[in-house]
Every structure is written in C-alpha cells, then in structure tokens.
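Can you please make up a protein's amino acid sequence together with its fold in token form to help me picture the idea?
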Amino acid sequence: MTNKKTPADWRLATKLVRGGLKRSQFGETSEAIFMTSGFRYDAAEVAADRFAGAAEGFTYSRLSNPTVAMFEERMSILEGLPVAKATATGMAAVNAALTCQLRAGDKVVGARALFGSCRYILDEILPRYGITTELVNGADNDAWARAITPGTKTVFVETPANPTLDVVDLQVVCDLAHAVGATVVVDNVFATPLLQRPTEYGADVVVYSGTKHIDGQGRALGGVILCQQQFFDDHLNQYLRHTGPTMSPFNAWILLKGLETLDLRVTRMCENAAKVADFLADSGKLSRVLYPGRKDHPQHELAMRQMAAGGTVITMDVPGGRDGAFHLLNALEIIDISNNLGDAKSLMTHPASTTHRSLAEAARLELGIGEGTLRLSVGLEDADDLIEDLAEALTRI
C-alpha cells in the first residue's frame, strides 16, 4: 500500500482546485463564505486559550477567518511556502511586506522599473521614516552589486516589471542580498505563480495582487504575502495583527474560485499574447514592441530561463506620442481601455497618464515610459479577433 499523499504532493491543477478546501458540517461542494466579524466560544476558558495561542480556532476576522484561511492555505500549497497571509489589496501586501521589517536607519535597494504605487512607497513613504532607498537599473547586475552593500536590509523587485517588462536576474540579486544579510521581496504579479517561482532562486518573500490573474475576471480586490515561518514570526505577524489590512471573506471566496481556473486562463492568455506580440512586431506601425517571449526582447534568454512562458502582457510604443497613443486607444472596438491587467478581457492602458502618472516626466523617460507607451494585457478572446481589432486601430495613428 502506498503512502497517502499530502496536498504538497499533488500536481498543479489539483492544488489549484482542492488546496486548502475545508467543508462545514453541511458538506458543501463550493467553499463556504463565513461573513462574520467575530466568533463565539463554548466557554470562557476556550476564549482565553485561543487568545493565548494554546488552542486552535478563530477569534476575530481581522486576524483570521475560515474563508480567508482557505485562500491562504491554497496559495501556500501553490507557492510552496509555509505561510500565506491575505490582504485587502495587492498594494497592502507590498506595503506590509516591506514596512513590517524596516526601521529608521535601514536601507532598501529596489529596481527603478516598478508599478507607480510601488515606486511611491520607495520614493516618498519610506524616506519619511528615516529609511534610505536606492533605485537601480534592474537589468544591470553590476548596478545591483554596487548598490547592495553591508547595511542593506531588504531588496525589492518586480520581474517582469510594470510596464517596461524589464527582467531581473533573480539568482544574482538573491545571492548578492543574502551575502550581506538582506531579505529579498519579489512582486511576482506579472509572471503569476504558474510561470515563475521566485523562491527557487532564493527569494524570501513573494507578493501578489490577487486582483489581477488570480481573480482574473475583474471582480474583487485582494493581495497575498507568502514567506517562511521565521519571517512571519519575527516581522509580519504582529504588523498585520495590529494594522489590519484584512481581506474580506467574500473577496477570499471570489479569489478561491479564480484559482480553480488560473492554469487554464494563464495558459490561453500566454498563447494569445505570443500571437498578438508577433503581429504587432511585424506590423511596421510601432516604434517598439516588448514581449519577454519574443527573441527580440533584450532579456529574452533570461526571461525564458526564469519563466515557463512569455506572460500575458505586451508593451509597445506608438509613433506620435500621446496623440498617437490616444488615437489607437480610442479606435479599439474589442479591447477595453482600462488600468487593470490579468483579466479575462483584453485591456490596454496609457501608463504615463494613469498608472505611472505620479512619476516625474524625467523618471518616466529614464524607465522608458514615453507619452506613446501603451501596455496591453491580453485576455481570453480569440487571438485573431484581437489582431483584427488592433490592425484596424493601427490605421488610425
């Protein structure tokens, strides 16, 4: 008789559908939504034991909730890290993962190419509290080596980056950080947990915006932080407990439903994105097309070494600056104008006027985000319909 497998032994599709599943006494097939702020106890001694940590059980949904706990356990099984803590949004996850471990006098090193709100945390919020931040070209390993010095507390990267699709060599950065005792926090939202596993290269903490591919249908906000038990015990536990960036049980239920189809959706979206990227690159109408899965991406070899596919996002530069970009956006019939990504529906955004608007123009240009830059999140539509929509729009610029 063979040994019984644990959830960690399951194959990917099984983890996505059944990881963390717990049924109530009613035997429901779909996860239950426990919309409750608090919990009752059979005796005062039970309440005392739970608050003391001497007995298992829930006390208050700001700290833990049965539906949220199912989402956390499924993400933990999927990522292969022992701790997963859900947050209200992806940015709440980023903020908590960084600030829970930082003190005045610490130093953070980050890649320049980051989502606008992530840049704001590093550029504006952390320095207010006496934390030094240094930003480098994420594609330049020598720049990382110069910046990550003794005294560096943590390193923060997105790879691929939003929206420039810069790729960071995770092995190099993790080795440099660990050599000086620093932790590495990776925002893995563009790659998803299916295409890239940062912990395989040494990352200490992985964060996601569940709002993107995990939900994948534009319904709910959410984030998640994944880490080792020691990081949770030393830094994250008390920070989350007392600051309360808590995920709603209803949102956790939606994200659980999203995880069930994540593999199917991301696989199809990557296939579509590859076809659309080839069309755009061959159209002759654009100044630049970036897609990690194409051989003309500056870091294609590294991207394919770290990722299982090229991803779901394409970045392009339209001639004519903002006017050209807006003409293309306004001519689209199928693809929606939106600042979200990872959705079943294809979405296109103009970063300079939306997601990266808070950055100074010089900073945007340094990153390669011009007035003609557009970010396309490819969805589940037929790729040929998307190509025809883009082909018609390209005649308008």
Remarks:
- DSSP finds 15 helices and twelve strands in the chain.
- The chain has a mean pLDDT of 95.
- Residues 7-260 form a domain with the Aspartate Aminotransferase; domain 2 fold (CATH 3.40.640.10).
